[in-house]
Amino acid sequence: MFKGLGGLGDMSKMMKAAQEMQGKMAQIQEDLETITVTGESGAGLVKATATAKGELTGLDIDPSIFVASEKEVVEDLILAAIKDAQSRATERAQAEMKKITEELGLPAGMNLPF
Questions:
Q1: Which residues are CB-contacts of 18 (< 8 A; sequence separation ≥ 6)?
Q2: How many domains are contained in the chain?
Q3: Which CATH number fits the domain that encloses residue 81?
Q4: Helix extents (H) in 1-114
Q5: What are residue 63's DSSP bridge partners?
Q6: What are 60's strand-pairing partners?
Q7: Model-level pTM?
């Protein structure tokens, strides 16, 4: 008699799942702003800290590398540390997104956000 109601029930489940995913995505976006990663170069002489979203938040430079004749080396070390921090931020963000897709039972290769 109410044959079509089964489809409405499935639609309701899909809507609930979509809302749950939206909530988790909002939470992960917030988390990525507070999770920090540290990149380094020169065996730790230069360290760059960034959020998992890739925003640079700090630099720590060992004073021993401040020699005028080594200016280009210092600049290279700073750039390398920043690039390492950005790379680590990307990896961390991808790992956090992978956790969400696994929790939601989505296919492993599915990239979020859509």
A1: none
A2: 1
A3: 3.30.1310.10
A4: 5-34, 71-103
A5: none
A6: 47
A7: 0.72
